[in-house]
Structure to design on (498 residues):
DNA sequence: CCTCTTTATAGTCGTAGCGACTATTAATTC
DNA sequence: GAATTAATAGTCGCTACGACTATAAAGAGG
């Protein structure tokens, strides 16, 4: 059933308020790490407004979808991945400023998605060309997508402290060096390797060793032991970000 | 399939037949602490569906409003407070399951609001009677409001750990005992008073003493020093919740 | 082959934070 | 004025953590 609710045609219970139907969309901040840099998936706009500018992938929520379902569908379309069921997808927040789209009233539910490997995106369907772009030089983006992307970055950075989210950037089996690089890339600094190792291994359920003493050969140094994501969801104790300069008075 | 608003092949502007308009509402989880118990502001529904059941206050987002603006307007209407500009209001998440309202497609942006004192709510406008109810015996609520309320509780509990949010439950000047009671009420346990005091005072910017060595008299024991909310937004180091039983293997 | 480089892993040391606990102080109540 | 209540001060021992050093195991290049 379609809601044509402007004026007096609102359903029972809503008729005391006049309300305007809004378009509801999802926007995706799809993040990955390639060559030690944080990359974001962007699409190039072909028409006004913001023609030629890059934007976050997204689209309308269909009548029988939740926002989460729509976001996962868009994620599959934009990345071209066959199976996105295991990927980390999380609602960020909703952006509803009246003027955020000059054409009409659009309320957008933003999501953050994290990918381990980074396949080159295949432009799905009629979508404009999609590409990985470095996070640092991504902007300025169309609409309020700069802010959405910044919010996503901040949220992911904060969640690395107290959740196992970092493993979502890693392949199924990974070394502690790769895991550390996730933290360093998202937080933008360097961490002490022995200390990082001690903290990760001291946190129960964060990672577990791959059976058989598997090691990753082919690198330049000593082969690293392989680990899998553990069963814990939260980190106790948390892995706190080193404080920025100037914090302690 | 469906034309995409951000796609390259769509004609000028949005294709009006590509999406279905949704009603967009806000729902508020308004929390306070009264007599050492966590209370939530609820309204009684007068009509189907869920007639006679309690629900979170909320309403439609008007055409010229953002969701935040609508939430603050609803907060003022439901609580009857003249000035809600200083109250803590924060977006929680958006609920968009297709069947969450049996009448029509409603996407609801949920907010959490924290109040220090607890004036008896005046039923604002045509709203049904609004009342403070204890959090523990609030359910079952109408629609998916049980889940929204639970999500709000969990979010607030988590934010107490690493933000100064607890002061939002307190009046402008408060004692450390009152602040501790906020933590105990939301987390549902007891904290050691000397240790709590030491941690709060050791966190720069969390609280600052009221000038003049002001103290709160009239209580039964030794008068407590009065404090104000500090200037910091985040807590360094965080005030971690005591681990639940069974967490360490 | 031997050595240098690179990376992983092991361990040390001093400090800060924190949980558990005891002691003291200053008000009200009986 | 003694008992009660609550705030504040302080102690003790353990753990976590940052900074640092040392060792092990691979490839690179002569």
């Amino acid at each position: 059933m379609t809601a044509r609710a402007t004026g007096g045609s609102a359903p029972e219970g809503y008729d005391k308020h006049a309300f305007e139907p809004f378009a509801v969309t999802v926007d995706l901040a799809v993040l990955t790490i390639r060559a030690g840099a944080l990359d974001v998936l962007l699409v190039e706009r072909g028409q006004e407004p913001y023609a030629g500018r890059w934007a976050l992938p997204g689209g309308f929520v269909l009548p029988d979808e939740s926002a989460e379902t729509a976001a996962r569908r868009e994620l599959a379309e934009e990345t071209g991945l066959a199976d996105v069921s295991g990927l980390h997808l999380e609602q960020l927040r909703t952006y509803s400023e009246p003027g955020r789209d000059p054409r009409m009233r659009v309320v957008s539910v933003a999501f953050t998605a994290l990918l381990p490997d980074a396949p080159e995106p295949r432009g799905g369907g009629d979508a404009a060309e999609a590409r990985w772009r470095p996070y640092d030089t991504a902007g300025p983006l169309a609409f309020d997508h700069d802010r959405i992307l910044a919010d996503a970055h901040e949220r992911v950075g904060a969640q690395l402290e107290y959740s196992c989210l970092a493993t979502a950037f890693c392949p199924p089996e990974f070394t502690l060096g790769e895991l550390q690089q996730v933290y360093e890339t998202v937080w933008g600094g360097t961490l002490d390797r022995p200390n990082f190792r001690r903290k990760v291994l001291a946190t129960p359920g964060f990672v577990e060793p791959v059976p058989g003493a598997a090691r990753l050969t082919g690198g330049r140094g000593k082969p690293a032991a392989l680990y899998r994501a553990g069963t814990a969801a939260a980190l106790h104790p948390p892995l706190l970000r080193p404080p920025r300069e100037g914090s302690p008075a």
Summary: Residues 145-162 of chain A form the longest helix (18 residues).
